[in-house]
Amino acid sequence: MPQQALTLAALADFSTLEGLLKNEGLDALIAALEQLQSQTPPESYAQREGGPRVAARALRVLLRALALDKAFLRAHPESLFQCLYNRLRWFDAPDAAAHFVAGAPEAQVWRLAEHWRQQWASPGRAPWVESLRPLPGPLEGDDRFFAHDAQVLSAAYSPSGARLATGTWEDGRNVHVWDVATGTCIQTMAGHEGEVRSVAWSPDGTRLASGSRGHDARIWDVETGALLHALTGQEGQVTSVAFSPDGRWLAAANLGWLVRLVDVATGQVVRTLKGHQQSVLAVAFHPSGRWLATGASDNTARVWDLETGTQVARIPTISSVGSVAFSPDGAWLALTDLDGIVRVATQDWKREPGVTGQGPYSGVSWVDDSRLGVLAFNRVEVLDARSGDVLRTRPYLSDGHQRSAAFHPAGKHFALTAANGRLLIGDLEETPSPTLLALQNPVDHLWGQPEGARGVARLRQAALTFDTAGREHTVPHDYREAALVPWKVSPDGVLLARPLMYLGERPDRPGIQLIDTRSLEPIHTLAASPKGPAEKSVIATRLPMAFSPDGQLLAAFIQEGAVHVWRVSDGALVHTLRGPREPAAIVDFTPDGTFVVSGYERSARVLVHEARSGTRVIDTTALLHPAPAYAAAAQAPCIALGRTSGEVELCELPGGAQRVLRVAGAPVIGLGLSDDGSLVAACCMDKRVRLLDSRRGVVLHELPHPALAYAVAVGDEVVVTQADDMRTRVFDLATGALLVTLDGCAPPEDVVRRRYWETLGDGPVAYHRQQEHSPFVHFHDAMEEILILREGLVLGRGRTERDLLYVLKLHDPA
User: Fold this and answer.
1) How many C-beta atoms lie closer than 10 Å to residue 686's C-beta?
2) Do 308 and 331 form a contact (C-beta atoms < 8 A)?
3) Burial class of residue 10 (count of CB atoms within 10 Å of its CB; 0-12, 13-18, 19+)
4) pLDDT at residue 739 above 80?
5) What b/e sequence results for 470-493 when a residue is b if at least 16 CB atoms lie within 10 Å of its CB, and e otherwise?
6) Is the CB of residue 516 less than 8 Å from the CB of residue 551?
7) Is 175 helix (H, G, I), strand (E, B) or coil?
8) What is the dihedral of CA 101, 104, 109, 115, to 10 degrees?
9) Which of 187, 262, 305, 417 could join 177 in a cystine, given CB atoms 3.0 to 4.6 angstroms apart?
């Protein structure tokens, strides 16, 4: 469709947008929408017979949605419907309100998205991924987010405002420089071993200073990223850094009660300021360069003459002073106090009576000679410096962590740090988009079985259970819960097994709580026998456990020296399977459910007991660290164990007959067995994977890897490996030839056995069908972790959107 033919009413037909993208490209589609927006009055709307009303506001939302997913759409233009539907469907729908701090005004944009879905549901359409929860990213307002891989602790605009520096909690690469206009990270400096608590620009914008928890300050060349000076060996964490107005000096404050004055040209300390009686938290130079103001946790701010190093003023406060700032004209010093902002006249260093604003504030800076930018725990404000009146305010939802704010030199925009790595670039004059609640309660872990009936998402503040339709329920909290110890879900999804740190009795001992997923009520608490004098409970940080395949038994390690087996129906203890008095690395059932396998890392022992009688049938050794080298045949009574000697031990069940195969001269760290047990694949420390005939002990193929393969699975026609170079490789079972190398990690067992599986890497998630090596659909975010349940229900832990919980549905016409 030519651009000039695009009308508001035409947007009701999704093929209009689809045709523009296909025939003219993404940029032409965006240009056509922008042109239509410029020609459309803000309050107008259009409607075709039988279609939804399309308001002008929908154009703004549509353009923002395209902007958010522009990079993804360039690579995957077939995802246009997926991207737009997942954004617009949640914009103002009635059921979206529960997911936001405050709902958006009605605009009926969601009705347009649902109308598109009806059109997309026609036969022959492409597969797509539906988000069953709202996606992050503002569809209105001027907010933007700069994503980091860890908590952002500090930020500073360059003198021109064109660039922004950030300091983070990342290991090593934790100082970043961003282009404000494009949101692109243009420089990353590596060197600090601790989190970066402060960043500051030189007056000419060519140098950047940073101070970290690693007791050091550093000076960098912004253009090249080169380290110019490392000021190591400070008396404590470096809390604040600042350049003098002429760029000659750098002041660095630390928790050791001192401030160092450094020559920027040489990196040498030229003066040390002593006098504070507790940690120094903030520094700021007077515009003349003559004085330096410092704030500390000793409830004082102090002013120093830099020529002599003497203290010229001591300003008492009622709380720690975490921020100090001089006005551009040099007439005033502002500092934070418990009740608000204190102003001090620099003419005589006298404190003005009272305070400005409605504190407490954790940060203060001057926007200009008459306005202050301040940060409170739930809002950013601009104050009239003299009257204290609030001129502008921008609320935000606290994330429970200390935050800092930087103000653009023009005063309209601000940058707000965040614990989730999403630095907010906000507009003080714009109404912000509603805050997504999921951003405030990130997910730590996902638990459940692939293709299972139910999954668990462990959030920081709650635990949610999901069925295959995406319905969620909150599991009631129990104060005895063992934090971050994995839960288990029964094969039929009816029961949850929740580890408990203790049972509320003396002496303390851990246990397992069985919860009915329909009522969410506990039905049994499983425990070991009370401890004898020679027995002790394990520390509840590792409680390996497993349901039997039929869901009738649960085996777990909760007491040193034994694995316990309970009957699920009544919670009765069935067996106490004795073993070494040390922590267990694995507890599992064989695929047919007739045996319990337990492994002990310290002694490298593996035990196999009959589930029915409790009789021990195997006691042998295997490599169990850093991960167990263990595999079980799905349809044959056989398990395989790897050893540091480069051997594989095959154990036949039920008799326990054992055979040892010599595989390599290097430790065997990963194993895979064919369904019938006739083939065994072994990952070895020599970066090779060997496929053997398990009955004859003959090596059939040797599969060299450029990186170390640590997991392997044997399918009907392929061998799949996963390696530490973030690659998944698929080999032909018959010939050993490499068929494909996939960017990203995929669990080999999922590749050969699951209906759907995924590859995870630095980019968008790629979803695959069984036996297909090319993805059939993508999703725009990168993920740290994914669990795919039955019916294509996906739980994901975000990587780009750090630790965000995604609930997705794979729509597969095939």
Assistant:
1) 16
2) no
3) middle
4) yes
5) bebeebeeeebbbeebbbbbbbeb
6) no
7) strand
8) 40
9) 187
Determine how many CB atoms are found less than 10 A away from the CB of residue 790: 17
Query: Is residue 578 within 8 Å of 614, Cβ to Cβ?
Result: no
586-603, pLDDT tens digit by residue? 999 999 999 999 999 999
Per residue in 235-267, pLDDT (tens digit) is 999 999 999 999 999 999 999 999 999 999 999
| Listed residue (652, 654, 700, 697) closest to 676, CA to CA | 652
> What gap in Å lies between CA 580 and CA 563, rounded to an integer?
10
Q: What is the pLDDT of residue 121?
A: 85
Separation between Cα atoms, residue 616 and residue 575, nearest integer Å:
11
What is d(CA 673, CA 681) in angstroms, rounded to the nearest whole number? 6
- The pTM assigned to this predicted structure is 0.85
Q: Which residues of 711-743 are buried (b: 16+ CB within 10 A; e: fewer)?
A: bbbbbeebbbbbbeeebbbbbebeeeeeeeebe
Distance CA 432, CA 427 (A): 8
Taken in order of first residue, the domains within the chain and their CATH numbers are 3-131 (no CATH), 144-432 (2.130.10.10), 622-753 (2.130.10.10)
Roughly what angle, to the nearest 10 degrees, separates helices 14-24 and 109-120? 70
Helix (H) or strand (E) holding 35: helix 26-39
H or E element: which one contains 155?
A: strand 152-157
Q: At 734, phi and psi to the nearest 5?
A: -75, -40
DSSP assignment letter at 11: G
Closest to 132 measured CA to CA, from 99, 105, 106, 92: 99
Q: What is the rounded CA–CA span in Å between residue 792 and residue 676? A: 28
Instruction: Report the C-alpha gap between 469 and 490 in whole angstroms.
Output: 18
Amino acid letter, 11: L
Backbone angles phi, psi at 418, to 5 degrees: -155, 150
CB 330 within 8 A of CB 286: yes
Integer Cα distance of 19 and 1 in angstroms: 7
Give the whole-angstrom CA distance, residue 108 versus residue 128.
23
Q: Distance (Å, rounded) from C-alpha 91 to C-alpha 84? A: 11
User: What is the per-residue pLDDT across 399-425, written as a single tens digit (0 to 9) for each?
Assistant: 778 899 999 998 889 999 998 888 999
Q: Does 628 score more than 80 pLDDT?
A: yes
- Cα 372 from Cα 230, distance rounded (Å): 33
Residue range 464-474, pLDDT digits in tens: 999 999 999 99
